[in-house]
Fold:
Amino acid sequence: MSFERPYGLAWLLLLAAELREWESPEAKAWSRRSSRSSGRGGAAARVAAEADAADPDRRALADAFSLGLVLDWARVAGRRRTRRLVEERSRDFYGRDRACPLAYEPSGEDFLSPCLGEAD
Structure:
């Protein structure tokens, strides 16, 4: 996975999840419109395909955070297949990690905590 792709697509999916849960006529309309870009063939499919093909030994800083956002969307959207894939790949990527070194923490140029992303 490249750094920006899962990150940006994951935020799109989280927005779609929020719209699904918002009890507002406007939000319902926005949710219907956004479903084409987030659902089948859209952002979820692209992130899932990349996660499925990714090498667990080559992971970018934002991958854990991004997978967490995609998992949140999959749960709200009722996408069991995507949820299972993200859970499986998260275990593949991070399941054996222990005692996250503080050296992994944001360097001053980063703004995400890799340790908290993995824990999530």
Observations:
- The chain has a mean pLDDT of 79.
